[in-house]
Fold:
Amino acid sequence: MTVWGVTRADVRRLAVATVLAACAELAGLLLMATAAWLLLRAAEQPPIAALTVAIIAVRALALLRGGLRYAERLAGHEVVLRYLGALRGRVYETLTARRSSRFSGGDLLSRLVSDVDAAQDAVLRCLLPALVALVVGMAAVTGALLFSAPAALALVAGLVLAGVLLPVLSARSARRAADADAPALAALADSAIDLARGAVELRAFGAADRAVAAARTVASGLSARERRRAGSPLPGAGAAIQVLTTLAVCVTAGGLGLPAIAALGLGTMAVFETVLPLATAARRWAEVREPLRRLHQLLSEPAPRDGSCPVPAANVHLRLRGAGLRYPGRPAPALTGVDLDLPQGRLVALVGPSGSGKSTLLAALAGQVETTAGAVTLNGRALGAYPAERLPVSGALADAHVFRATVRENLLLAKPSASDDELLAACRAAGSEAELDRLPGTDGAAMSGGQRQRLLLARALLSDAPVLLLDEPVEGLDPAHADAVLRSVLTAAAGRTVVLATHQPAPLPGFDEILVLDEGEVVERGTHAELVARAGYYAEHYLPSPGRAHMP
Ligand SMILES: Nc1ncnc2c1ncn2[C@@H]1O[C@H](COP(=O)(O)OP(=O)(O)OP(=O)(O)O)[C@@H](O)[C@H]1O
Structure:
Protein backbone atom coordinates (compact mmCIF):
# COMPACT_ATOMS: atom_id res chain seq x y z
CA MET A 1 0.00 0.00 0.00
CA THR A 2 1.27 3.51 -0.83
CA VAL A 3 1.51 6.45 1.56
CA TRP A 4 -1.93 7.48 0.32
CA GLY A 5 -3.41 4.05 1.00
CA VAL A 6 -4.99 3.74 -2.46
CA THR A 7 -6.27 0.18 -2.92
CA ARG A 8 -7.06 -1.77 -6.08
CA ALA A 9 -10.75 -1.39 -5.23
CA ASP A 10 -10.31 2.42 -5.16
CA VAL A 11 -8.69 2.34 -8.61
CA ARG A 12 -11.49 0.12 -9.92
CA ARG A 13 -14.16 2.45 -8.52
CA LEU A 14 -12.37 5.45 -10.03
CA ALA A 15 -12.21 3.71 -13.42
CA VAL A 16 -15.96 2.95 -13.27
CA ALA A 17 -16.73 6.58 -12.31
CA THR A 18 -14.51 7.84 -15.14
CA VAL A 19 -16.14 5.58 -17.73
CA LEU A 20 -19.64 6.54 -16.60
CA ALA A 21 -18.82 10.27 -16.59
CA ALA A 22 -17.11 10.05 -19.99
CA CYS A 23 -20.11 8.13 -21.40
CA ALA A 24 -22.48 10.80 -20.01
CA GLU A 25 -20.42 13.55 -21.67
CA LEU A 26 -20.16 11.60 -24.92
CA ALA A 27 -23.92 11.02 -24.91
CA GLY A 28 -24.38 14.80 -24.57
CA LEU A 29 -21.87 15.43 -27.34
CA LEU A 30 -23.53 12.90 -29.69
CA LEU A 31 -26.93 14.34 -28.83
CA MET A 32 -25.83 17.83 -29.89
CA ALA A 33 -24.16 16.59 -33.06
CA THR A 34 -27.06 14.32 -34.05
CA ALA A 35 -29.66 16.99 -33.30
CA ALA A 36 -27.74 19.51 -35.43
CA TRP A 37 -27.42 17.02 -38.28
CA LEU A 38 -31.13 16.13 -37.98
CA LEU A 39 -32.29 19.76 -38.16
CA LEU A 40 -30.26 20.62 -41.23
CA ARG A 41 -30.92 17.29 -42.97
CA ALA A 42 -34.65 17.72 -42.31
CA ALA A 43 -34.48 21.15 -43.97
CA GLU A 44 -33.44 19.34 -47.17
CA GLN A 45 -36.80 17.45 -46.97
CA PRO A 46 -35.50 13.90 -47.52
CA PRO A 47 -37.82 10.88 -47.22
CA ILE A 48 -38.74 10.36 -43.57
CA ALA A 49 -37.04 6.93 -43.59
CA ALA A 50 -33.68 8.71 -44.02
CA LEU A 51 -34.23 10.49 -40.70
CA THR A 52 -35.67 7.67 -38.60
CA VAL A 53 -32.39 6.44 -37.15
CA ALA A 54 -31.36 10.00 -36.19
CA ILE A 55 -34.75 10.68 -34.56
CA ILE A 56 -34.51 7.51 -32.49
CA ALA A 57 -30.87 8.29 -31.66
CA VAL A 58 -31.77 11.78 -30.39
CA ARG A 59 -34.49 10.35 -28.12
CA ALA A 60 -32.27 7.51 -26.88
CA LEU A 61 -29.27 9.79 -26.27
CA ALA A 62 -31.40 12.30 -24.33
CA LEU A 63 -32.64 9.53 -22.03
CA LEU A 64 -29.22 7.89 -21.80
CA ARG A 65 -27.50 11.13 -20.88
CA GLY A 66 -29.80 11.70 -17.89
CA GLY A 67 -29.36 8.14 -16.64
CA LEU A 68 -25.59 8.19 -17.11
CA ARG A 69 -25.26 11.51 -15.31
CA TYR A 70 -27.11 10.07 -12.33
CA ALA A 71 -24.97 6.93 -12.32
CA GLU A 72 -21.81 9.00 -12.71
CA ARG A 73 -22.67 11.14 -9.64
CA LEU A 74 -23.29 8.00 -7.61
CA ALA A 75 -20.05 6.36 -8.74
CA GLY A 76 -17.99 9.55 -8.27
CA HIS A 77 -19.20 10.06 -4.74
CA GLU A 78 -18.85 6.37 -3.95
CA VAL A 79 -15.16 6.40 -4.87
CA VAL A 80 -14.46 9.63 -2.97
CA LEU A 81 -16.46 8.94 0.17
CA ARG A 82 -15.12 5.41 0.59
CA TYR A 83 -11.56 6.56 0.03
CA LEU A 84 -11.90 9.57 2.33
CA GLY A 85 -13.39 7.45 5.11
CA ALA A 86 -10.32 5.20 5.01
CA LEU A 87 -7.91 8.14 4.66
CA ARG A 88 -9.44 10.03 7.58
CA GLY A 89 -9.12 6.89 9.71
CA ARG A 90 -5.43 6.60 8.76
CA VAL A 91 -4.81 10.26 9.61
CA TYR A 92 -6.41 9.85 13.04
CA GLU A 93 -4.46 6.63 13.66
CA THR A 94 -1.19 8.27 12.65
CA LEU A 95 -1.85 11.28 14.85
CA THR A 96 -2.75 9.22 17.88
CA ALA A 97 0.32 7.00 17.39
CA ARG A 98 2.67 9.99 17.56
CA ARG A 99 4.27 10.41 20.98
CA SER A 100 6.08 13.59 20.06
CA SER A 101 4.44 16.94 20.64
CA ARG A 102 5.16 17.90 17.03
CA PHE A 103 1.64 17.20 15.84
CA SER A 104 -0.17 18.00 19.07
CA GLY A 105 -0.98 21.68 18.62
CA GLY A 106 -4.76 22.03 18.49
CA ASP A 107 -4.66 24.23 15.37
CA LEU A 108 -2.34 21.86 13.59
CA LEU A 109 -4.46 18.87 14.49
CA SER A 110 -7.66 20.40 13.18
CA ARG A 111 -5.85 21.67 10.09
CA LEU A 112 -4.49 18.22 9.33
CA VAL A 113 -7.89 16.65 9.79
CA SER A 114 -9.58 19.23 7.57
CA ASP A 115 -6.78 18.77 5.04
CA VAL A 116 -8.41 15.45 4.25
CA ASP A 117 -11.17 17.46 2.56
CA ALA A 118 -8.52 18.71 0.15
CA ALA A 119 -8.01 15.07 -0.90
CA GLN A 120 -11.73 14.96 -1.72
CA ASP A 121 -11.39 17.95 -4.04
CA ALA A 122 -8.21 16.53 -5.55
CA VAL A 123 -10.14 13.43 -6.66
CA LEU A 124 -13.59 14.85 -7.36
CA ARG A 125 -12.72 18.25 -8.81
CA CYS A 126 -9.28 17.68 -10.31
CA LEU A 127 -8.45 14.05 -11.09
CA LEU A 128 -11.90 12.87 -12.23
CA PRO A 129 -12.57 15.87 -14.57
CA ALA A 130 -9.07 15.50 -16.04
CA LEU A 131 -9.56 11.78 -16.77
CA VAL A 132 -13.04 12.40 -18.22
CA ALA A 133 -11.76 15.25 -20.41
CA LEU A 134 -8.96 12.99 -21.68
CA VAL A 135 -11.35 10.17 -22.62
CA VAL A 136 -13.94 12.50 -24.17
CA GLY A 137 -11.27 14.50 -26.02
CA MET A 138 -9.75 11.36 -27.51
CA ALA A 139 -13.16 10.00 -28.50
CA ALA A 140 -14.12 13.34 -30.08
CA VAL A 141 -10.89 13.52 -32.10
CA THR A 142 -11.39 9.92 -33.29
CA GLY A 143 -14.96 10.78 -34.27
CA ALA A 144 -13.84 13.91 -36.13
CA LEU A 145 -11.17 11.87 -37.91
CA LEU A 146 -13.92 9.71 -39.43
CA PHE A 147 -15.29 12.84 -41.14
CA SER A 148 -12.20 14.88 -41.95
CA ALA A 149 -8.51 14.70 -40.99
CA PRO A 150 -7.93 18.50 -41.17
CA ALA A 151 -10.98 19.08 -38.96
CA ALA A 152 -9.62 16.53 -36.45
CA LEU A 153 -6.24 18.31 -36.51
CA ALA A 154 -7.91 21.67 -35.79
CA LEU A 155 -9.81 20.05 -32.95
CA VAL A 156 -6.60 18.59 -31.48
CA ALA A 157 -4.93 22.03 -31.56
CA GLY A 158 -7.88 23.68 -29.82
CA LEU A 159 -8.11 20.94 -27.19
CA VAL A 160 -4.39 21.16 -26.39
CA LEU A 161 -4.69 24.93 -25.95
CA ALA A 162 -7.81 24.72 -23.77
CA GLY A 163 -7.04 21.46 -21.99
CA VAL A 164 -3.31 21.78 -21.35
CA LEU A 165 -1.96 25.30 -21.86
CA LEU A 166 -4.85 27.14 -20.21
CA PRO A 167 -4.90 24.90 -17.09
CA VAL A 168 -1.11 25.25 -16.74
CA LEU A 169 -1.38 29.05 -16.92
CA SER A 170 -4.36 29.05 -14.54
CA ALA A 171 -2.51 26.90 -11.99
CA ARG A 172 0.53 29.15 -12.21
CA SER A 173 -1.52 32.30 -11.69
CA ALA A 174 -3.44 30.65 -8.79
CA ARG A 175 -0.12 29.69 -7.16
CA ARG A 176 1.20 33.22 -7.56
CA ALA A 177 -2.02 34.66 -6.15
CA ALA A 178 -1.92 32.25 -3.20
CA ASP A 179 1.72 33.16 -2.47
CA ALA A 180 0.93 36.87 -2.68
CA ASP A 181 -2.19 36.57 -0.49
CA ALA A 182 -0.75 34.18 2.10
CA PRO A 183 0.73 36.83 4.47
CA ALA A 184 -2.40 38.98 4.30
CA LEU A 185 -4.68 35.97 4.84
CA ALA A 186 -2.60 34.86 7.84
CA ALA A 187 -2.70 38.40 9.26
CA LEU A 188 -6.47 38.52 8.71
CA ALA A 189 -6.96 35.18 10.48
CA ASP A 190 -4.83 36.38 13.40
CA SER A 191 -6.80 39.65 13.57
CA ALA A 192 -10.10 37.76 13.49
CA ILE A 193 -8.98 35.56 16.41
CA ASP A 194 -7.69 38.57 18.37
CA LEU A 195 -10.90 40.51 17.70
CA ALA A 196 -13.12 37.61 18.71
CA ARG A 197 -11.18 36.38 21.76
CA GLY A 198 -9.83 39.71 22.95
CA ALA A 199 -12.94 41.84 22.34
CA VAL A 200 -13.38 42.60 26.04
CA GLU A 201 -9.76 43.72 26.55
CA LEU A 202 -9.71 45.70 23.30
CA ARG A 203 -12.84 47.59 24.37
CA ALA A 204 -11.55 48.07 27.93
CA PHE A 205 -8.28 49.58 26.65
CA GLY A 206 -10.07 51.64 23.99
CA ALA A 207 -8.16 49.78 21.25
CA ALA A 208 -11.15 48.10 19.55
CA ASP A 209 -11.58 50.73 16.80
CA ARG A 210 -7.88 50.62 15.93
CA ALA A 211 -7.89 46.81 15.77
CA VAL A 212 -11.01 46.75 13.58
CA ALA A 213 -9.52 49.41 11.28
CA ALA A 214 -6.28 47.43 10.94
CA ALA A 215 -8.23 44.26 10.05
CA ARG A 216 -10.34 46.25 7.59
CA THR A 217 -7.23 47.59 5.85
CA VAL A 218 -5.89 44.06 5.37
CA ALA A 219 -9.29 42.83 4.13
CA SER A 220 -9.69 45.67 1.65
CA GLY A 221 -6.15 45.06 0.34
CA LEU A 222 -7.15 41.45 -0.31
CA SER A 223 -10.42 42.45 -2.02
CA ALA A 224 -8.57 44.96 -4.22
CA ARG A 225 -6.14 42.25 -5.34
CA GLU A 226 -9.04 39.89 -6.02
CA ARG A 227 -10.82 42.56 -8.10
CA ARG A 228 -7.66 43.13 -10.12
CA ARG A 229 -7.37 39.41 -10.72
CA ALA A 230 -11.02 39.25 -11.83
CA GLY A 231 -9.95 41.37 -14.83
CA SER A 232 -7.50 38.64 -15.94
CA PRO A 233 -8.00 37.55 -19.57
CA LEU A 234 -7.56 33.84 -18.73
CA PRO A 235 -11.26 32.94 -18.10
CA GLY A 236 -12.31 34.65 -21.37
CA ALA A 237 -9.51 32.93 -23.27
CA GLY A 238 -11.23 29.54 -22.89
CA ALA A 239 -14.42 30.76 -24.56
CA ALA A 240 -12.39 32.39 -27.34
CA ILE A 241 -10.50 29.13 -28.01
CA GLN A 242 -13.83 27.25 -28.07
CA VAL A 243 -15.33 29.59 -30.69
CA LEU A 244 -12.18 29.78 -32.84
CA THR A 245 -11.72 25.99 -32.79
CA THR A 246 -15.36 25.48 -33.77
CA LEU A 247 -14.90 27.88 -36.69
CA ALA A 248 -11.63 26.20 -37.71
CA VAL A 249 -13.27 22.74 -37.61
CA CYS A 250 -16.21 23.95 -39.72
CA VAL A 251 -13.94 25.66 -42.25
CA THR A 252 -11.54 22.71 -42.59
CA ALA A 253 -14.49 20.33 -43.01
CA GLY A 254 -15.83 22.54 -45.81
CA GLY A 255 -15.99 19.73 -48.37
CA LEU A 256 -18.64 17.84 -46.37
CA GLY A 257 -22.32 18.58 -46.61
CA LEU A 258 -23.99 21.21 -44.40
CA PRO A 259 -25.57 18.69 -41.98
CA ALA A 260 -22.19 17.02 -41.34
CA ILE A 261 -20.47 20.40 -40.85
CA ALA A 262 -23.19 21.42 -38.36
CA ALA A 263 -22.77 18.11 -36.52
CA LEU A 264 -18.99 18.62 -36.32
CA GLY A 265 -19.38 22.25 -35.22
CA LEU A 266 -21.87 21.55 -32.46
CA GLY A 267 -19.92 18.45 -31.42
CA THR A 268 -16.82 20.64 -31.09
CA MET A 269 -18.72 23.16 -28.95
CA ALA A 270 -19.92 20.26 -26.76
CA VAL A 271 -16.49 18.66 -26.25
CA PHE A 272 -15.17 22.00 -25.00
CA GLU A 273 -17.84 21.96 -22.28
CA THR A 274 -15.92 19.01 -20.83
CA VAL A 275 -12.45 20.45 -21.42
CA LEU A 276 -12.89 24.09 -20.34
CA PRO A 277 -13.57 23.26 -16.64
CA LEU A 278 -9.99 21.93 -16.51
CA ALA A 279 -8.76 25.50 -15.99
CA THR A 280 -10.87 25.71 -12.81
CA ALA A 281 -9.70 22.21 -11.82
CA ALA A 282 -6.08 23.35 -12.24
CA ARG A 283 -6.70 26.40 -10.01
CA ARG A 284 -8.19 24.12 -7.37
CA TRP A 285 -5.24 21.75 -7.77
CA ALA A 286 -2.88 24.65 -7.05
CA GLU A 287 -4.86 25.33 -3.84
CA VAL A 288 -4.98 21.72 -2.61
CA ARG A 289 -1.30 20.96 -3.23
CA GLU A 290 -0.16 22.39 0.11
CA PRO A 291 -2.76 20.50 2.23
CA LEU A 292 -1.88 17.34 0.29
CA ARG A 293 1.84 17.91 0.94
CA ARG A 294 1.13 18.23 4.68
CA LEU A 295 -0.89 15.00 4.67
CA HIS A 296 1.82 13.22 2.71
CA GLN A 297 4.42 14.36 5.24
CA LEU A 298 2.31 13.10 8.14
CA LEU A 299 1.48 9.75 6.58
CA SER A 300 4.96 9.04 5.26
CA GLU A 301 6.78 9.64 8.54
CA PRO A 302 7.67 6.30 10.04
CA ALA A 303 5.47 5.58 13.05
CA PRO A 304 7.32 5.36 16.35
CA ARG A 305 8.31 1.79 16.98
CA ASP A 306 6.17 1.01 19.99
CA GLY A 307 7.24 -2.16 21.59
CA SER A 308 4.96 -4.86 22.81
CA CYS A 309 6.59 -5.60 26.16
CA PRO A 310 4.01 -6.63 28.74
CA VAL A 311 3.34 -3.61 30.94
CA PRO A 312 3.92 -4.20 34.67
CA ALA A 313 0.84 -3.40 36.76
CA ALA A 314 2.80 -3.03 40.02
CA ASN A 315 6.39 -2.70 41.22
CA VAL A 316 7.14 -0.18 38.56
CA HIS A 317 10.66 1.23 38.52
CA LEU A 318 11.08 4.32 36.34
CA ARG A 319 14.53 5.76 35.79
CA LEU A 320 16.06 8.69 33.92
CA ARG A 321 19.74 8.45 33.05
CA GLY A 322 21.47 11.53 31.71
CA ALA A 323 18.18 12.55 30.14
CA GLY A 324 18.29 15.56 27.84
CA LEU A 325 15.66 17.10 25.62
CA ARG A 326 15.78 19.88 23.08
CA TYR A 327 12.49 21.04 21.53
CA PRO A 328 12.68 21.51 17.75
CA GLY A 329 13.62 25.06 16.83
CA ARG A 330 14.72 26.00 20.35
CA PRO A 331 18.33 27.11 20.83
CA ALA A 332 18.76 25.84 24.39
CA PRO A 333 17.86 22.36 25.64
CA ALA A 334 14.84 22.17 27.97
CA LEU A 335 16.54 19.36 29.94
CA THR A 336 20.20 18.43 30.31
CA GLY A 337 21.75 15.38 31.97
CA VAL A 338 18.92 14.61 34.40
CA ASP A 339 19.29 11.47 36.54
CA LEU A 340 16.31 10.31 38.54
CA ASP A 341 15.59 7.00 40.21
CA LEU A 342 11.94 6.21 40.91
CA PRO A 343 11.42 2.83 42.58
CA GLN A 344 7.80 2.01 43.42
CA GLY A 345 6.36 4.26 46.11
CA ARG A 346 8.96 7.02 45.96
CA LEU A 347 7.82 10.62 46.47
CA VAL A 348 9.77 13.13 44.41
CA ALA A 349 9.16 16.85 44.06
CA LEU A 350 10.39 19.03 41.20
CA VAL A 351 10.86 22.68 42.06
CA GLY A 352 12.49 25.60 40.31
CA PRO A 353 11.67 28.83 38.57
CA SER A 354 9.19 29.09 35.72
CA GLY A 355 10.60 27.58 32.52
CA SER A 356 13.20 25.49 34.34
CA GLY A 357 11.98 22.22 32.78
CA LYS A 358 9.62 20.69 35.37
CA SER A 359 6.72 20.04 32.96
CA THR A 360 9.14 18.75 30.33
CA LEU A 361 10.61 16.26 32.80
CA LEU A 362 7.10 15.02 33.70
CA ALA A 363 6.17 14.76 30.00
CA ALA A 364 9.32 12.69 29.39
CA LEU A 365 8.39 10.33 32.25
CA ALA A 366 4.87 10.02 30.83
CA GLY A 367 6.31 9.12 27.40
CA GLN A 368 4.63 12.19 25.88
CA VAL A 369 7.89 13.63 24.59
CA GLU A 370 10.95 11.67 23.58
CA THR A 371 14.25 12.55 25.17
CA THR A 372 16.95 13.54 22.70
CA ALA A 373 19.80 12.38 24.95
CA GLY A 374 20.19 9.79 27.70
CA ALA A 375 17.53 7.23 28.51
CA VAL A 376 14.17 6.78 30.20
CA THR A 377 13.63 3.21 31.37
CA LEU A 378 10.79 1.30 32.92
CA ASN A 379 11.86 -1.79 34.88
CA GLY A 380 15.18 -1.72 33.05
CA ARG A 381 13.84 -1.44 29.49
CA ALA A 382 13.51 1.68 27.36
CA LEU A 383 10.09 3.32 27.67
CA GLY A 384 9.67 2.89 23.90
CA ALA A 385 9.68 -0.89 24.38
CA TYR A 386 6.19 -0.66 25.89
CA PRO A 387 2.94 0.17 24.11
CA ALA A 388 2.58 3.97 24.46
CA GLU A 389 -1.10 3.91 25.30
CA ARG A 390 -0.72 1.43 28.16
CA LEU A 391 2.14 2.89 30.18
CA PRO A 392 1.43 2.42 33.90
CA VAL A 393 1.43 6.16 34.43
CA SER A 394 -1.42 8.48 35.24
CA GLY A 395 -1.44 12.11 36.04
CA ALA A 396 -2.64 15.65 35.88
CA LEU A 397 -0.17 17.14 33.42
CA ALA A 398 -0.03 20.64 32.01
CA ASP A 399 -1.97 19.80 28.84
CA ALA A 400 -4.47 17.39 30.43
CA HIS A 401 -7.82 17.70 28.69
CA VAL A 402 -11.32 17.92 30.12
CA PHE A 403 -13.77 16.35 27.69
CA ARG A 404 -17.09 17.87 26.67
CA ALA A 405 -19.01 15.29 28.64
CA THR A 406 -20.36 15.13 32.19
CA VAL A 407 -17.99 15.11 35.15
CA ARG A 408 -18.94 11.44 35.65
CA GLU A 409 -17.95 10.52 32.11
CA ASN A 410 -14.69 12.45 32.46
CA LEU A 411 -13.87 10.51 35.61
CA LEU A 412 -14.91 7.14 34.20
CA LEU A 413 -12.24 7.52 31.53
CA ALA A 414 -9.68 6.69 34.19
CA LYS A 415 -11.63 3.74 35.59
CA PRO A 416 -14.65 2.66 33.53
CA SER A 417 -15.83 0.19 36.18
CA ALA A 418 -15.91 2.74 39.03
CA SER A 419 -19.16 3.15 40.96
CA ASP A 420 -20.55 6.59 41.79
CA ASP A 421 -19.30 6.10 45.36
CA GLU A 422 -15.74 5.56 44.11
CA LEU A 423 -16.02 8.61 41.87
CA LEU A 424 -17.23 10.75 44.74
CA ALA A 425 -14.47 9.42 47.02
CA ALA A 426 -11.83 10.40 44.42
CA CYS A 427 -13.44 13.84 44.10
CA ARG A 428 -13.38 14.26 47.88
CA ALA A 429 -9.70 13.23 48.04
CA ALA A 430 -8.97 15.85 45.37
CA GLY A 431 -10.92 18.47 47.34
CA SER A 432 -13.56 18.64 44.60
CA GLU A 433 -17.26 19.00 45.24
CA ALA A 434 -18.12 18.54 41.59
CA GLU A 435 -21.59 17.20 40.86
CA LEU A 436 -21.23 14.11 38.71
CA ASP A 437 -23.90 15.18 36.21
CA ARG A 438 -22.44 18.62 35.66
CA LEU A 439 -21.24 19.54 32.17
CA PRO A 440 -17.78 21.14 32.43
CA GLY A 441 -17.91 22.77 28.95
CA THR A 442 -15.22 22.58 26.29
CA ASP A 443 -11.97 21.65 28.04
CA GLY A 444 -13.50 22.70 31.36
CA ALA A 445 -14.35 26.24 30.20
CA ALA A 446 -17.56 26.21 32.26
CA MET A 447 -15.61 25.57 35.50
CA SER A 448 -13.28 27.75 37.50
CA GLY A 449 -9.56 27.09 37.06
CA GLY A 450 -9.37 25.51 40.52
CA GLN A 451 -12.42 23.28 39.92
CA ARG A 452 -10.94 22.10 36.65
CA GLN A 453 -7.62 21.28 38.34
CA ARG A 454 -9.37 19.27 41.04
CA LEU A 455 -11.42 17.35 38.47
CA LEU A 456 -8.15 16.40 36.72
CA LEU A 457 -6.65 15.40 40.07
CA ALA A 458 -9.65 13.22 40.93
CA ARG A 459 -9.35 11.56 37.51
CA ALA A 460 -5.64 10.91 38.04
CA LEU A 461 -6.31 9.41 41.48
CA LEU A 462 -9.06 7.13 40.15
CA SER A 463 -6.77 5.36 37.72
CA ASP A 464 -5.02 2.25 39.03
CA ALA A 465 -1.68 3.38 37.56
CA PRO A 466 1.19 2.83 40.02
CA VAL A 467 2.88 6.11 38.99
CA LEU A 468 1.24 9.51 39.44
CA LEU A 469 2.69 12.55 37.68
CA LEU A 470 1.27 15.83 38.96
CA ASP A 471 2.08 19.15 37.34
CA GLU A 472 1.27 22.01 39.71
CA PRO A 473 -2.04 20.33 40.53
CA VAL A 474 -3.21 22.94 43.02
CA GLU A 475 -2.32 26.02 41.04
CA GLY A 476 -5.23 28.43 41.23
CA LEU A 477 -6.29 27.45 44.76
CA ASP A 478 -5.71 29.73 47.72
CA PRO A 479 -2.53 28.63 49.56
CA ALA A 480 -4.27 27.15 52.65
CA HIS A 481 -6.75 25.19 50.52
CA ALA A 482 -3.97 24.15 48.11
CA ASP A 483 -1.96 22.75 51.00
CA ALA A 484 -4.94 20.74 52.31
CA VAL A 485 -5.75 19.35 48.84
CA LEU A 486 -2.13 18.33 48.22
CA ARG A 487 -1.91 16.52 51.56
CA SER A 488 -5.20 14.73 50.87
CA VAL A 489 -4.04 13.68 47.39
CA LEU A 490 -0.73 12.39 48.71
CA THR A 491 -2.56 10.37 51.38
CA ALA A 492 -4.90 8.89 48.74
CA ALA A 493 -1.87 8.07 46.57
CA ALA A 494 -0.03 6.19 49.33
CA GLY A 495 2.01 3.30 47.89
CA ARG A 496 2.21 4.85 44.43
CA THR A 497 5.21 6.61 42.99
CA VAL A 498 4.46 10.34 42.87
CA VAL A 499 6.40 12.97 40.97
CA LEU A 500 5.05 16.41 41.75
CA ALA A 501 6.05 19.66 40.08
CA THR A 502 5.15 22.44 42.43
CA HIS A 503 5.71 25.98 43.59
CA GLN A 504 3.96 25.06 46.87
CA PRO A 505 6.46 24.65 49.72
CA ALA A 506 4.22 23.25 52.46
CA PRO A 507 4.23 19.50 51.61
CA LEU A 508 7.89 19.31 50.59
CA PRO A 509 9.32 18.19 53.96
CA GLY A 510 7.47 14.86 53.52
CA PHE A 511 9.12 14.01 50.17
CA ASP A 512 11.86 11.38 49.70
CA GLU A 513 13.74 13.59 47.29
CA ILE A 514 13.46 17.11 45.95
CA LEU A 515 15.07 18.17 42.66
CA VAL A 516 15.73 21.86 42.10
CA LEU A 517 15.81 22.57 38.38
CA ASP A 518 17.22 25.62 36.70
CA GLU A 519 17.43 26.03 32.92
CA GLY A 520 16.84 22.31 32.48
CA GLU A 521 19.58 21.17 34.84
CA VAL A 522 19.31 19.72 38.33
CA VAL A 523 21.14 22.32 40.41
CA GLU A 524 20.33 20.93 43.87
CA ARG A 525 18.87 17.62 45.07
CA GLY A 526 18.21 15.92 48.37
CA THR A 527 15.63 15.77 51.14
CA HIS A 528 14.09 18.91 52.54
CA ALA A 529 16.43 18.82 55.53
CA GLU A 530 19.53 18.35 53.34
CA LEU A 531 18.56 21.20 51.04
CA VAL A 532 17.79 23.51 53.94
CA ALA A 533 21.20 22.72 55.46
CA ARG A 534 22.83 23.57 52.10
CA ALA A 535 21.29 27.07 52.31
CA GLY A 536 21.10 27.41 48.50
CA TYR A 537 18.27 28.29 46.09
CA TYR A 538 15.86 25.87 47.76
CA ALA A 539 16.36 27.22 51.26
CA GLU A 540 15.97 30.72 49.94
CA HIS A 541 12.76 30.14 48.00
CA TYR A 542 10.93 27.09 49.35
CA LEU A 543 11.08 27.21 53.13
CA PRO A 544 7.52 27.20 54.33
CA SER A 545 7.01 30.22 56.52
CA PRO A 546 3.82 31.68 57.97
CA GLY A 547 3.93 34.77 55.81
CA ARG A 548 5.15 33.03 52.64
CA ALA A 549 3.02 30.07 51.77
CA HIS A 550 3.10 30.37 47.96
CA MET A 551 6.38 30.45 46.09
CA PRO A 552 7.82 31.68 42.75
N1 LIG B 1 6.32 22.46 23.23
C1 LIG B 1 7.40 23.23 23.42
N2 LIG B 1 8.09 23.67 22.35
C2 LIG B 1 9.20 24.43 22.51
N3 LIG B 1 9.67 24.82 23.70
C3 LIG B 1 9.02 24.42 24.80
C4 LIG B 1 7.85 23.62 24.71
N4 LIG B 1 7.40 23.38 25.97
C5 LIG B 1 8.27 24.00 26.80
N5 LIG B 1 9.23 24.63 26.09
C6 LIG B 1 10.37 25.39 26.63
O1 LIG B 1 11.12 24.49 27.44
C7 LIG B 1 11.56 25.12 28.61
C8 LIG B 1 11.05 24.37 29.84
O2 LIG B 1 9.63 24.54 29.88
P1 LIG B 1 8.73 23.79 30.97
O3 LIG B 1 7.31 24.00 30.60
O4 LIG B 1 9.20 22.39 31.09
O5 LIG B 1 9.09 24.61 32.30
P2 LIG B 1 8.39 24.58 33.71
O6 LIG B 1 9.48 24.52 34.70
O7 LIG B 1 7.36 23.52 33.79
O8 LIG B 1 7.71 26.02 33.75
P3 LIG B 1 6.42 26.51 34.61
O9 LIG B 1 6.81 26.45 36.06
O10 LIG B 1 6.21 27.91 34.15
O11 LIG B 1 5.30 25.58 34.25
C9 LIG B 1 11.05 26.56 28.54
O12 LIG B 1 12.11 27.37 28.06
C10 LIG B 1 9.93 26.49 27.55
O13 LIG B 1 9.81 27.73 26.85
Summary: The pocket of adenosine-5'-triphosphate is lined by residues 101, 327, 330, 334, 352, 354-360 (CB under 6 Å). The longest helix spans residues 49-97.
